[in-house]
Amino acid sequence: MQEKSQHAAVKKFSQIKAHILDRIESGEWDVNQKIPSENELAAQFQVSRMTARRAVQELTEQDVLIRTQGLGTFVADTKTQSSLLEIKNIADEINDRGHMHSSTQVALSTIDAIPPVAIALGVEEYSPVFHSILIHHQNNVPIQLEERFVNPGIAPQYIDQDFNDITPHEYLSRVAPLTEAKHSVEAIQSNKQQSDWLNIDMKQPCLQLLRRTWSNQGVVSFARLIYPGSRYKLGGHLTFHTSQKIKMKG
Questions:
Q1: Which domains does the chain show, CATH number per domain?
Q2: Do 144 and 91 meet the contact criterion of CB atoms below 8 Å apart?
Q3: CB contact at 8 A, 135 and 102
Q4: Which residue spans within the chain are E strands per DSSP?
Q5: What pTM was computed for the model?
Q6: pLDDT band at 183 (very low <50, low <70, confident <90, very high)
Q7: Is the pLDDT of residue 82 over 90?
Q8: How many CA atoms lie within 13 Å of 174's alpha carbon, on the beta-carbon side?
């Protein structure tokens, strides 16, 4: 009898996963859309909350869903992601190549967190967050446009910094040491403002990297990094270990 009950729970668990995936793949549930709660799913499929939670948890671990404490569970961006990139300070990266790094601070202000930003940072919608825009140069040539949203609860002094002298990454690494990061990479075409900042033609393809970072206190920042395709190449060195996961350097 117990075996039959367990089999039924597994079947319902698979049905919940399939139901969520069908809604996402059909476009009924869009990126950043909040999905029904575990209690609602449990009631809909007439199962325990534990069974519904297992389905949601597995899809979260597969990066199909994203959970934000206190806000709920949302549809994640399912575009191809890579977890093999090393997080490096752009200034160090440029200096290590033997070139000169400089930056221009375009904006630094407090703004209201629109829904996608609030979800990414795990804060209430339209609550105040910090927003910065910088242009990073290699030998005075723009190589990266950095737009960053920062959780003021974790880095309250971010708004008081001069990012012409220190990079946001370097500052945040000091006040909220990085414990976790997730990112996605895709090719885009820049808009007019981004093209002007990077001093490129709008027709030139760019590489966009979206990154969320965590410290022990929670989500620290959500950043959009845009690189001109003609000035940046994504690469690295793979080291294989018999008893370890693949790791990328550089």
A1: 2-75 (1.10.10.10), 90-240 (3.40.1410.10)
A2: no
A3: no
A4: 65-68, 72-75, 101-112, 128-138, 141-150, 180-189, 205-215, 218-228, 237-239, 247-249
A5: 0.67
A6: confident
A7: no
A8: 9
